[in-house]
């Protein structure tokens, strides 16, 4: 149905950002609270290239992804590396600090007024068997799916992907076989930043580009990542799509008495509720493996 | 017969704790040398000093060139270090573990090497897709050895391979190491608690005590000297 398709599109965006969170957590053990703001920054960069420097859409898109990648690598090496082995609290404070700093920078640089970033897929709508879908939604689903497949192939088949996976599970042994573990972890951050950039660029056309754009999306991404299992990439994707469809279905179901309490403002609280429930009932999520600590 | 590895007055520390005070040893190319001693004598630390896993000072030279930097540098210089506990990548498959072993190699002859190594570990070819964590201890030890061989190392460091393994498995493992040494000229430095089995395949041995070399000699000498065996080697 219609809500399912729209739900899959927004779910695709949640999945991308959730994937970024999972990659970073799995490789460096850090919950990156600044992931949303990094995505917002990337989207503003893309917008600036298009609106202020007259770039065409796809070259700006690619350039933004490249810049985001470098930014992610640099963030790991400069900001995260010094605090990596330390206490969890310290790392959390650092990423929250990044969140505030980047948000402040974006407001300072571009102002708080919403800007328009058009969708590369146009604004057409199609009628497929009674279901009306927008070209942007289809494009979003296609891009999200495509990136997930690419990422899977990277991790599964390439030497670099193998090195990143090895660095995440066994950094000491990885160094012994010659893997430059610190660089691999930085690459992970670069990949995550790139994913965030795509998520941001796909979100801006629908909600408008402003400094707070990704804040709600980040919460949804967290819910998706926790639901799927904070260390499971597959879980992040499934969780994101599930959450997107679920939230949209609730909108649709308000016409029935059972669900008429639901309104748009409840989307965010429901996502937070998902996080709470999952952590209470099955902390490792749908696909995660329970963490065993030997005493 | 040239010296492949030379350690001279090597010290090593874990933070404030000095684990090696003054360790000097040599390994000649093509030799199997054993490092023996009680728990806490510094055997594992010696291997870690060589591979750069622990902070160290003193002279450590591979083929006349000083070894500096961390484990990544040592791996690129041709040192394969099989750590205590085998260091298996348990979440990855057997094949992926082997691929990681060959990480530093740039040449394309990997397939032939996998075949050559499969000759010593025939079961590996069939279990490529199996998750390495589900292998038995003995199989993981063999996998660790195969992984080390994939890098075509000039020097193989083995850290307590007998740990946690059944005696029959240990014998088979050491037989394989001896075969590799005899057929391929692989140079091996093996750290062991089980002095008897280590001496059975090594040409020379060093006995460590509290971070220093207490005794050294040919394996034959050490085996035949009952006093040495009783006081240093425990049998």
Write a structural description.
The complex is a heterodimer of chains A (295) and B (235). Chain A has 11 helices and 2 strands. The model of chain A has no long low-confidence stretch (mean pLDDT 88). Chain A is mostly helical and 295 residues long. The relative contact order of chain B is 0.19. In chain B, helix 3 (94-101) runs parallel beside helix 6. Chain B is built from 10 helices and 10 strands. In chain B, 39% of the residues lie in helices and 29% in strands. Chain A binds chain B through residues 159, 162-163, 165-166, 169-170, 172-181, and chain B through 51, 53, 70-72, 75-76, 81, 83, 87-92, 96, 99-101, 103-104, 147, 151.
Task: Record the SSE blueprint.
The complex is a heterodimer of chains A (295) and B (235).
Chain A: H1 2-28, H2 35-51, H3 57-80, H4 88-110, E1 125-128, E2 131-134, H5 135-157, H6 159-169, H7 171-176, H8 181-207, H9 213-228, H10 233-253, H11 267-281
Chain B: E1 3-14, E2 17-28, E3 32-37, H1 43-51, E4 55-62, E5 65-66, H2 71-77, E6 79-82, H3 94-101, H4 110-120, H5 123-126, H6 137-149, E7 155-159, H7 167-184, E8 187-192, H8 195-201, E9 204-209, E10 212-218, H9 219-224, H10 226-233
Parallel strand pairs in B: 3-8, 3-9, 6-7, 7-8
Antiparallel strand pairs in B: 1-2, 1-4, 4-5, 9-10
């Amino acid at each position: 149905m219609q809500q399912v398709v729209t739900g899959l599109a927004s779910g695709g965006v949640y999945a991308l950002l959730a994937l970024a969170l999972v990659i970073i957590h799995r490789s460096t053990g850090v919950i990156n609270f600044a992931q949303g703001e990094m995505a917002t920054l990337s989207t503003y960069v893309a917008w600036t290239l298009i609106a202020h420097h007259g770039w065409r859409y796809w070259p700006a898109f690619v350039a933004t992804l490249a810049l985001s990648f470098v930014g992610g690598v640099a963030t790991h090496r400069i900001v995260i590396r010094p605090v990596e082995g330390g206490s969890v609290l310290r790392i959390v404070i650092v990423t929250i600090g990044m969140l505030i700093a980047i948000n402040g920078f974006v407001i300072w640089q571009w102002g708080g007024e919403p800007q328009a970033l058009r969708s590369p897929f146009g604004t057409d709508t199609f009628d497929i068997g009674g279901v009306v879908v927008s070209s942007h939604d289809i494009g979003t689903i296609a891009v999200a799916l495509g990136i997930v497949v690419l990422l899977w192939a990277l991790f599964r088949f390439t030497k670099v992907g193998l090195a990143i996976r090895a660095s995440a599970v066994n950094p000491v042994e990885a160094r012994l076989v010659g893997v430059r573990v610190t660089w691999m972890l930085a690459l992970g951050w670069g990949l995550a930043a790139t994913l965030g950039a795509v998520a941001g660029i796909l979100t801006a056309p629908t909600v408008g580009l402003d400094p707070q754009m990704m804040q709600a999306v980040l919460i949804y991404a967290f819910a998706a990542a926790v639901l799927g299992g904070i260390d499971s990439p597959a879980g992040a994707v499934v969780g994101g799509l599930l959450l997107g469809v679920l939230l949209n279905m609730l909108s649709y179901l308000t016409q029935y008495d059972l669900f008429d309490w639901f309104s748009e403002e409840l989307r965010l609280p429901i996502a937070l509720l998902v996080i709470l429930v999952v952590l209470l009932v099955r902390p490792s999520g749908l696909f995660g493996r329970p963490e065993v600590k030997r005493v | 017969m040239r010296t492949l590895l030379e350690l001279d007055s090597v010290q090593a520390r874990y933070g404030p704790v000095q684990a090696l005070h003054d360790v000097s040893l040599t390994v000649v190319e093509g030799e199997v040398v054993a490092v023996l001693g009680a728990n806490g004598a510094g055997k594992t630390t010696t291997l870690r000093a060589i591979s750069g896993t622990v902070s160290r000072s003193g002279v450590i030279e591979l083929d006349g060139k000083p070894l500096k930097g961390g484990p990544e540098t040592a791996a690129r210089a041709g040192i394969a270090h099989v750590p205590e506990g085998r260091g298996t990548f348990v979440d990855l498959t057997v094949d992926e573990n082997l691929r990681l072993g060959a990480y530093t190699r740039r040449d394309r002859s990997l397939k032939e090497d996998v075949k050559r190594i499969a000759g010593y570990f025939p079961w590996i070819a069939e279990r490529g897709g199996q998750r390495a964590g589900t292998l038995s201890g003995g199989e993981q030890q063999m996998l660790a050895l195969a992984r080390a061989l994939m890098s075509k190392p000039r020097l193989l460091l083995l850290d307590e391979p007998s740990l946690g393994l059944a005696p029959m498995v240990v014998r088979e493992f050491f037989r394989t190491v001896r075969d590799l040494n005899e057929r391929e000229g692989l140079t091996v430095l093996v750290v062991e608690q089980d002095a008897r089995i280590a001496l059975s395949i090594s040409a020379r041995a060093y006995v460590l005590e509290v971070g220093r070399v207490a005794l050294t000699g040919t394996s034959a000498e050490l085996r035949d000297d009952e006093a040495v065996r009783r006081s240093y080697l425990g049998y």
